[in-house]
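If you are new to this repository, start here. Below is one unmodified record pulled from the training split, so you can see the exact layout before writing a loader.
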Amino acid sequence: SKHMKVGGKIVQVGCQAEIDNYATGNLTGWKEYHRMTARELMVGGFLLSNHMSEIPAAFLSLMLMQKRGKLKSVETTIRGGWQQFTECIDRLRTGDTFGRLILMFDDQTETAMGA
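And here is the target side for that same chain:
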């Protein structure tokens, strides 16, 4: 939240990073939630499964925004091969990423292995 524009909006879709802690009740949540008030942020959430009929139009809208340069991609990239796959899963579960997580294969021939 410290990188958020004042008056910005946060949309949370699920909580994959907390899934392992859900059964124990040991949820950690946002580490800097107090910044939401200081930045006057609006927070909302939704379950994707409740909005399946809206996906095609949303996808088209996002693609047009990206083409016009109005949408910025934020990602964490890990380079390597299949040996880094479990590291990627672990980082998804712990929330140790920023934006989407991409496993970029160094060797193009390795991408077909295990298929």
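Two things worth knowing about this chain: The chain is about 30% helix and 20% strand. Helices lie at 19-22, 34-38, 55-67, 85-94.
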